[in-house]
Amino acid sequence: MLEIDGLTRRFGDRTAVNGVSLRIPAGQMVGVIGRSGAGKSTMLRMVNRLTDPSDGRIRFEGTDVTALRGRALRDWRMRCAMIFQQFNLVQRLDVLTNVLVGRLNRRPVMTSLLRMFTAEERAMALAALDRFDLAETALQRADTLSGGQQQRVAIARAMLQEPRIILADEPIASLDPRNSRIVMESLRGVNREGITVLVNLHDLATARDYCDRIVALNAGRLVFDGPPEHLTAQRIREVYGVSEEEFAEEAAIAVGATPRHAAIAA
């Protein structure tokens, strides 16, 4: 169980996340939606401790995540893997090495620096690539792949961390509809193995199609928390003051999607 209690983050006079509380059972897939600047990315970064909360607590299976420091914090980031919109791959390295980066926190410092991975770890990385239909790209440089392929490499890298939770921050924002579907199906497949997934999305249809639960933020506050079927067009208008189409277009443009993708999202 991931427990978030009164989570708040302030940047000077601006409050990006304001008193958010959630209980997320193990193995749930949660879509986090909201307009531009709603606090979605800040919330995920606090869960991973890339950003420290101003107030509130994060607990996981009885451990106070907000109190972790040093090695304990690095271990948490290993168990709570992060996937980013822009993939965060080392473009000049081959795909296999990028996936193996997911093992670095499990290895002694010197062998990590020398990238001395074991045969077993290399087999794990190849199996992860094969799972996402990328085995044939193992020796290619990362920058030769399409955006959708690079995001699947990022998911494979996250899986090598052997995480309990995956946080995905707008993982399909820069992808076309076909690659968006492939990436979301990959995340859903990971989730079906019992891994908790929290995914920030601008596409409401995608959130409904793939997530067990939808959480909506507005100006940093939690304004909706429930099953996808309860997030009706009327509810969106009540919460955000705009139609579903206006919400989707605004959110898609905010994360760099094209107007065509925004229309598809609606």
UniProtKB/TrEMBL annotation:
<feature type="domain" description="ABC transporter">
    <location>
        <begin position="2"/>
        <end position="244"/>
    </location>
</feature>
<keyword id="KW-1003">Cell membrane</keyword>
<dbReference type="InterPro" id="IPR003593">
    <property type="entry name" value="AAA+_ATPase"/>
</dbReference>
<dbReference type="GO" id="GO:0005524">
    <property type="term" value="F:ATP binding"/>
</dbReference>
<keyword id="KW-1278">Translocase</keyword>
<keyword id="KW-0472">Membrane</keyword>
<protein>
    <submittedName>
        <fullName>Phosphonate ABC transporter ATP-binding protein</fullName>
    </submittedName>
</protein>
<keyword id="KW-0813">Transport</keyword>
<keyword id="KW-0067">ATP-binding</keyword>
<dbReference type="GO" id="GO:0016887">
    <property type="term" value="F:ATP hydrolysis activity"/>
</dbReference>
<dbReference type="InterPro" id="IPR017871">
    <property type="entry name" value="ABC_transporter-like_CS"/>
</dbReference>
<keyword id="KW-0547">Nucleotide-binding</keyword>
<dbReference type="InterPro" id="IPR027417">
    <property type="entry name" value="P-loop_NTPase"/>
</dbReference>
<dbReference type="InterPro" id="IPR012693">
    <property type="entry name" value="ABC_transpr_PhnC"/>
</dbReference>
<dbReference type="InterPro" id="IPR003439">
    <property type="entry name" value="ABC_transporter-like_ATP-bd"/>
</dbReference>
<dbReference type="GO" id="GO:0016020">
    <property type="term" value="C:membrane"/>
</dbReference>
<dbReference type="Pfam" id="PF00005">
    <property type="entry name" value="ABC_tran"/>
</dbReference>
<dbReference type="GO" id="GO:0015416">
    <property type="term" value="F:ABC-type phosphonate transporter activity"/>
</dbReference>
<dbReference type="InterPro" id="IPR050086">
    <property type="entry name" value="MetN_ABC_transporter-like"/>
</dbReference>
